[in-house]
């Protein structure tokens, strides 16, 4: 049984990060008799200068990418369809905001030590994109933490300290120095990289190809 090390550089604010991950999950499920994977999430802030109160998402995207209202509508439609194919629901009905995600990355760093990092990351994605929770509000954020079985008061203590601040910055710097400028980026066995919200077929093809290449190297 082949076991892969997969490092995912991503931001909770990135819709293609959840689409890509869900498609990777589907690929690994289809390949479960041949291979498995140890997954670690790493921080990337799409909007490091975003103020704590956040910004209306549609307004933010139109400003950042110079989108017209029609282009924004088309983007949302494409994203909804991609999410549906991947088994994830994007909710575009209510008011959505873009926030500064630094504290989320700090909590994800802690969750990694607790063995619940993927669970918390997926819960954050769902809270933000499906349930339209404002994760820049402490209680809303801590409710998500508690939902995956992590200790709420420990998390509160982290938020009110500088714990994991340097760790998050260090990891972000390391990946920038490696040339990673967009998310999601999936790094497989420290050598191969796939970027974007790839379909599950692309992951299956890549994992099989890497497995064959590494088998030849080991022969």
From TrEMBL:
Ranges for domain DSBA-like thioredoxin come to 6-207
Q: What is this protein called?
A: DSBA oxidoreductase
- What is the species listed in this Swiss-Prot or TrEMBL entry? Pseudoalteromonas fuliginea
Q: SUPFAM superfamilies from the xrefs? A: Thioredoxin-like (SSF52833)
- InterPro entries attached to this UniProt entry: DSBA-like_thioredoxin_dom, Thioredoxin-like_sf
The record, for Pfam families, names: DSBA
Q: Which domain of life is it from?
A: Bacteria
């Amino acid at each position: 049984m082949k076991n892969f090390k997969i490092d995912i550089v991503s931001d909770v604010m990135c819709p293609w990060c959840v689409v890509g991950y869900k498609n990777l999950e589907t690929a690994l499920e289809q390949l479960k008799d041949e291979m498995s994977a140890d997954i670690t999430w790493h921080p990337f802030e799409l909007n490091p200068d975003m103020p704590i109160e956040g910004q209306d998402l549609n307004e933010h995207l139109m400003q950042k990418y110079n989108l017209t209202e029609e282009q924004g509508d088309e983007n949302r439609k494409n994203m909804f369809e991609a999410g549906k194919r991947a088994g994830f629901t994007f909710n575009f009905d209510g008011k959505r905001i873009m926030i500064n995600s630094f504290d989320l990355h700090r909590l994800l760093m802690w969750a990694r030590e607790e063995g619940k990092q993927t669970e918390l990351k997926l819960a954050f994605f769902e809270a933000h994109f499906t349930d339209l929770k404002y994760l820049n509000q402490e209680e809303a954020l801590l409710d998500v933490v508690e939902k995956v079985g992590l200790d709420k008061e420990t998390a509160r203590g982290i938020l009110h300290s500088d714990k994991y601040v340097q760790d998050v910055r260090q990891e972000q710097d390391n990946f920038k120095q490696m040339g990673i400028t967009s998310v999601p980026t999936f790094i497989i066995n420290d050598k191969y990289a796939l970027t974007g919200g790839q379909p599950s077929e692309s992951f299956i093809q890549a994992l099989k190809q890497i497995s064959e290449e590494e088998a030849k190297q080991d022969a």
